[in-house]
């Protein structure tokens, strides 16, 4: 097995939808919906409580993108998926969501 096929890449996060774009389509005609999740929580690091605040750029592709159009700014969701570069030439990470549930 090559090194590029090893390793885990799974992100599960909940947060508030603070920005959502209009549904668009890739050049191949696949629906794509981009949004930003704001996560706030308390986590334990090195045995101490730490407040965590972050905005996560995220996207859903395919049928899930069409099904997610009802999500509005201000709603809270739980998302699971993986991290990948925004594009081949970018170093910015984007969460690609496989499951998305309102909470």
Low-confidence stretches: none
The CATH class turns out to be: Mainly Beta
Order of strands across the main sheet: 1-3-4-6-5
Could you say how many structural domains there are in total? 1
Helix content percent band:
under 10%
CATH topology: OB fold (Dihydrolipoamide Acetyltransferase, E2P)
Q: What is the count of β-strands?
A: 6
- Characterize the biggest β-sheet: 5 strands, mixed, barrel
Mean pLDDT: 94
Helix and strand content put the structural class at mainly beta
| Count of runs of 4 or more consecutive helical residues | 1
Order of helices and strands: EEEEHEE
Question: At CATH's second level, what is the architecture?
Answer: Beta Barrel
- CATH superfamily annotation: Nucleic acid-binding proteins
Classify the beta-strand content into a percent band: over 45%
Q: In whole angstroms, how far apart are the ends?
A: 39 Å
Give the structure's gist in a few sentences:
The chain is mainly beta and 103 residues long. 5% of the residues lie in helices and 59% in strands. It has one domain: Nucleic acid-binding proteins (OB fold (Dihydrolipoamide Acetyltransferase, E2P)), CATH 2.40.50.
